[in-house]
Specification:
Length: 139
Amino acid sequence: MPVQESEASEVQTRYGRVRKHRISEGWLIGGFAALAVIIFFVWAIAVNGIGSTSSTLGSNVTGTSITHHGMSVTVRYTVSVTPGTAYSCAVEADSEDHAIVGWKVVSFPATSAQQTAHEQTIRTVQPAVAGLISDCWVR
């Protein structure tokens, strides 16, 4: 027996009308996933910069000399960098127990050479046994 129209309207009045077009959970999850992907790409572009040119930078210690009873260290090193890039390097001297006993930041102007050789002497506060490049970065 078919439901009468008055009964149907009475049920709708009592319990409310059911929407025919519900968004399924799949579409909702897919929408959030797409939004997360878009946010990730926007973040990645913002962090790396749009159209930024990345400079590769590397250093290599080619030798060290300990002088004045360990109170001075000379570090010889090469730096490879994209030509036309100014950079700085932190040179450090370490003691026997691996403590930093000397430190110096050296800045270099942009040059057309891809690899440059440098020598830096660091005075120390305690006897040193090693010299090294702690880090180099683009200015």
